[in-house]
Write a structure and sequence with these properties.
Main location: other
GO molecular function, one term: carbohydrate binding
CATH superfamily of the largest domain: Response regulator
Family: Belongs to the bacterial solute-binding protein 2 family.
Subcellular location: Cell envelope
Number of helices: 10
Number of domains: 2
Structural class: alpha/beta
Number of strands: 14
Keywords: Signal
Strand order of the largest sheet: 2-1-3-4-5-13
Length: 312
């Protein structure tokens, strides 16, 4: 009888521990993901890769992903995620005006990991490619192909905030550093192929000779190349880009007259941002900023970067 009682007590204690462990194992961290609405293939890929990584970590986290069309909508969604109980938020705040709501989230005890965009808020973790170095590499690339003299069009995107500012700064600083004496013409555009086509078509009318185009984005560059083709221009020797678009990669070997270049800035980097959020919530020590180095892709190495499963 005593032996049976002991076995019963031990078994009961074991089941209690197992059940308690099961409940504990079900406690998952809540992570919110905020991304812009899809206006660009790269942005679509960001949301795709973020959700894919969250699914891979579903044994550790619950997640909600929301997309927005402007800062006010993203702010409202951030508030919704707070109400839901998010412990961390991975945000891609593409517009100005997100500083205050992100600061308030941090003050409420929520960990915030910014993807790509740099904003002036203390306590934010950030994961991004090296936008400044993309400009640096673009300057070296153009100088290597056309020398240090010539006419170069610079396509900036002021609405992209620090992304455009840093890429342009890296480009201009490097031109000065290497002593490139270019005739520069700077125009505002957008990160879309439609804008690249329309704006470059106008630029080609204004300038009868251009040696190179410093474009910051693969989508824009596809439009630029279309405009050059439609105008029948043979003077342009280099068109740069940025992002990592499969369609753009595939164009590289087909145009022998123009060196088509992309400074790789893969949307898959957002997976690292999700990982940072998880590590912070699990108490791991994580650097405040994680910068992923630039890789240059052109017709000499594009095959290494082809990915048939990529959404971008």
């Amino acid at each position: 009888m005593k032996k049976g009682l002991v076995i019963f007590v031990v078994l009961a204690m074991f089941l209690t521990l197992v059940f308690a462990g099961g409940v504990s194992a079900q406690d998952k961290h809540k992570i919110g993901i905020l991304a812009p609405a899809v206006t660009h293939g790269w942005v679509a890929a960001v949301a795709y890769h973020a959700e894919a990584r969250a699914e891979e970590l579903s044994d550790k986290i619950e997640y909600r992903i929301q997309t927005s069309s402007n800062a006010s909508e993203m702010t409202a969604q951030l508030d919704d995620l707070k109400t839901w109980g998010a412990e961390a938020i991975v945000a891609f705040p593409q517009w100005t005006g997100m500083e205050v709501p992100i600061r308030m989230a941090i003050e409420d005890g929520i960990e915030v990991v910014n993807f790509d965009i740099k904003i002036d808020v203390d306590g934010v973790y950030r994961v991004a490619g090296d936008n400044y170095d993309m400009g640096v590499q673009g300057a070296y690339y153009i100088a290597d192909k056309i020398g240090k003299e010539g006419t170069v069009v610079v396509l900036e995107v002021p609405t992209a905030g620090s992304v455009s500012e840093l890429r342009k700064a890296g480009f201009l600083d490097t031109l000065e550093k290497i002593g490139a004496d270019y005739e520069l013409h700077t125009y505002a555009t957008q990160f879309t192929r439609e804008a690249g086509l329309n704006d470059m078509s106008d630029i080609l009318v204004r300038h009868d000779h251009i040696d190179a185009v410093y474009s910051m984005d693969d989508e824009t560059s596809i439009g630029v190349l279309k405009a050059i083709e439609e105008a029948g221009r043979k003077d342009i020797k280099v068109v740069t880009g940025g992002g990592g678009m499969q369609e753009y990669f595939e164009m590289m070997p087909k145009n022998k007259d123009i060196w088509i270049q992309s400074a790789l800035y893969s949307p898959a980097m957002v997976k690292d941002a999700v990982d940072v959020a998880v590590k912070v919530l699990e108490g791991e020590e994580v650097p405040q900023e994680t910068i992923i180095p630039t890789t240059i892709v052109d017709r000499t190495n594009y095959k290494k970067f082809l990915d048939p499963n990529s959404p971008y």
